[in-house]
Amino acid sequence: MTDFQFDERAAEWDRDPVRVERARAVAEAIRGAIPAGPGTRMLEYGCGTGLLSFALQPFPGRIVLADTSQGMLDVLALKIEAARVLNMEPQRLDLLTDSLPEERFDLLCSLLTLHHIPDTVTVLHRFHDVLKPGGSLALADLDTEDGSFHGMDVTDIHRGFDRSELQARLEAAGFTGVRFSTVYTIRKPVEDVEREYPMFLAIARREA
User: CATH homologous superfamily of domain 3-206?
Assistant: First the structure.
């Protein structure tokens, strides 16, 4: 989907209970895999309305939530204000076209964003560069699917990822210790038949 399409859907985004449930499932898996504390600086890339970061609270000490959709960021800002959260900062950022932020992070999280990014090779290198030495990546996305998840007419996305191929791309970007787990299964009707779409969580590390 384009930024405009995400902008249009932002106000209704959190009303889908599946989105809330899967964010909580991914957050629980991240908590179990990566140590964090008050000094942890986290970047959520492709944050949308911040469902994952809110589910992770108060796991990291500081969270920068980045997205390219201003509509999503506007909804996020209202949520942060309403919750009176002090450690979250929304930021418009496109790692394919913008300069890297000056800040470096201990943890970078991303939920169902990578398959929307055309140039995964470049963005994985940018993920590596924005982490501190010793920092961790937690990347949740779809396993390879036949294109029915978004619809066969949607052609500007990746149809999920083969885990071994993605591991090779992560290692080529400089990550080590790559490991995968199945973190959630999305169930949705497609042409009146319920289909299952497994999601992986990839954990990797930038060398210290």
Answer: Vaccinia Virus protein VP39 (3.40.50.150)
